[in-house]
Amino acid sequence: MKLGAQLFSIRTECTTPEALYSSMKKIKDIGYEIVQVSGVCKIEAERLLSYSEELSLPITCTHRPYAEITESTAEVIKYHKTIKCPVIGLGSMPKDMRGSRDGLEAFIKAMKTPLEMITDSGLTFAYHNHGFEFEKLDGKYYYDIIMEELPELHFIHDVYWSKYAGADPLYYVNLLGEAGRMTNIHFKDMISDPQGDMCPCGVGVIDFRTLADACRAHGIDNVLVEQDNAPTLGDVFEQMKTSYENLKNIVK
Asked: Which of 121, 133, 155, 251 could anchor a disulfide with 143, C-beta 3.0 to 4.6 Å?
């Protein structure tokens, strides 16, 4: 397995192409082997590819906006092929689609054409969860309904958010891993249980060793550290370094 950084964690240091390059170099110097590109500045695909190749930091997945995925699917596919990124990620269901059957059905319907186009192009489309997907509709989690209704969809499972919502992240790692529907996973720690704030990996209560063992068993190769609140807690690179040091012997 490879240990990577979700660049959303250091987004405040990636606001220009020049700053993005410098920040990616710092991530590489910490020891990270791969990155997810999300929350960074606008940058031409060719320039981003040059950063990735020069620094030996392959881009394993992204998060792209819902409107971009649904309205400009072909352009999104082209961009990802140029940067040699195999997985197009959607960071979240739009807020106005959450919390109702109509909204969920509209979301599922809206995903079908992009999912087909992305799959037919040879790339993978993957959904990243938060906590609201573990609310229930007719006794079933939204997450499970999405999984059933869109069988070609892959997932970038966020272990913090499933635990925060009261679900079992290990169950979903095993479920998605056995089905071959996940190649990237987000490791994010929780300072206290239940529903504690985010913190660097290894500082909180989440059992990453068990999760990493499950990932390894199912061939889930890319473990990405994501800490949404890193910019509010001091030096983002020091926090990412803490996560790296605490995970490197577990993941590798």
From this structure: 133
